[in-house]
Amino acid sequence: MAPRHPVFGAPCWASLLARDLADTRNFYGAVLGWTFRPTELGDQFVVAEADGVPVASIGALAPTLQVAVAWTPYFVVGDADATASRIRERSATVAVGPLAFEMGRAALAADRDGAVFGFWEGEPLPDATVKLGEPPFRLELRTYDAIASAIFYGEVLRWADDGPGGIDVSYEKDHVVLRTGHGSGNVVARMSSGGIEAAMDPHMRPRWHVSFPVDGVKAVRTAAETAEKMGGTVVMAETTAYEEAEQVTLRDPDGGLFTLTGR
Question: 22, 60, 180, 203: which has the fewest Cβ within 10 Å?
Answer without folding.
Answer: 22
